[in-house]
Amino acid sequence: MDKGWIRVNARDLSKIIASTVKTHIIASCIDDSSSTTPLELKLPAMGLKHPSFFMATSLLLLILLCICSLPSFALSRAMIKDDAKVLGRPVAFLQNLVGSQKGDTIEGLRHLKQYLHKFGYLIHSHSPSSSTTSTSTARNNDDEDTYDELLESAIRTYQQNYNLDVTGELDARTIDLMMKPRCGVPDIINGTTSMNSGKPTNNNHHRHHQSHVVLHYNVNPSRRKWAKTQLTYAFLNSGSALRSVTARAFKRWSAVTSFTFREVQDPETADIKIGFFAGEHGDDDPFDGPGGVLAHSYIPTIGLFHLDKEERWSTKNIPGMNEMDLESVTVHEMGHLLGLAHSSDEDAVMYPTIDNGVVKRELTEDDIDGITDLYKYLT
Ligand SMILES: [Zn+2]
Ligand SMILES: [Zn+2]
């Protein structure tokens, strides 16, 4: 600590302003090590002319301060808790569902059904596509809070895709995984998937006759791809941070394919259009605020790449524990833009979930196998 200065947490600042007398006390009892927030302020400590009087007053006020600090500490804890709640708000309902199983009726199960519907595990009964036969996607017959057979089946498929114990019950590990931040692209598209549940080892051999089913590689089910290797991209709204991150992310894919990527100014003419959006943003797939879905992008040759503006994005080399690494998510979304789907390989960039504070920018063998298979005539 510098002489003549004190360091205080930003949260304590309002308290200090409210009482200059307290400032003396804080100066005498706050230590550098008590600082827990990155944002710190320095205040000048006042001179002490009457030590004995001051010591007595200090002692009295120290007791008062300690009493006053208790609610403040509790408030700080509450703020941290609220923060976590805000970050996971889109999927907070899942916390009430730990331990539930078939036959249960629990408030929040209908939201779970909506979650599973969003990512391709359930089809609503009123959906026109529900008439199609599918082994990976179960039909959702109602929007009630009931744990029926169809929900159990969808949970089983989810657990299979994410390498969990296939119990059909909402155990803690399953809920924990569902609560992680993730990509908004469904795991199962039109009833087919290249994740575990779509592979032949899972008794799905009867699907071999379907030309759209991809059994080994994590590419989009209809194998849509770009017919050219020189692609252009443009930003709809962004600063320089996204520009450099995007350039680095593209380079990772250029290194393992024949693709080249060039930035252009006019989004109208660009093959890939990149932008940040909040909530509803015109493609019928609204973002959900902090936590939950981070980004989504579209298979070739649509070329749209949208990021949730409300996430705590990091463009640093090492993101903070409550920050999401923009480059990691961008490399993942680039995979979709080139035609890859989700992979069950937890190390792969194309695995659907990623934690805050995690850096996952390097393409793995699984990612490279997928892109090589899809574009083998080009590479
Ligand atoms: Zn994805
Ligand atoms: Zn969008």
List keywords for this structure.
binds zinc ion, five-stranded mixed β-sheet, single chain, Peptidoglycan-bd-like, 11 strands, 379 residues, metalloendopeptidase activity, alpha/beta, hydrolase, calcium
Fold and architecture overview:
One of its GO terms (molecular function) is metalloendopeptidase activity. The active site is at 333. Ca(2+) 2 binds at residue 271. The chain crosses the membrane at residues 53-75. Zn(2+) 1 binds at residues 281, 283, 296, 306. This protein has 379 residues and is of the alpha/beta class. Helix content is 32%, strand content 12%. It contains nine helices and eleven strands. The protein has helices at 13-18, 20-29, 51-87, 109-118, 149-161, 172-178, 240-254, 326-338, 365-374, and strands at residues 5-9, 40-44, 122-124, 138-140, 230-237, 260-263, 272-277, 295-297, 304-308, 313-314, 324-325. The chain has a five-stranded mixed sheet, with helices on one face. It has a two-stranded antiparallel sheet with strand order 1-2. The protein is globular, with a radius of gyration of 26 Å. It starts with a strand and ends in a 5-residue tail after the last helix. The relative contact order is 0.10. The structure holds zinc ion (2 copies). One zinc ion binds next to loops.
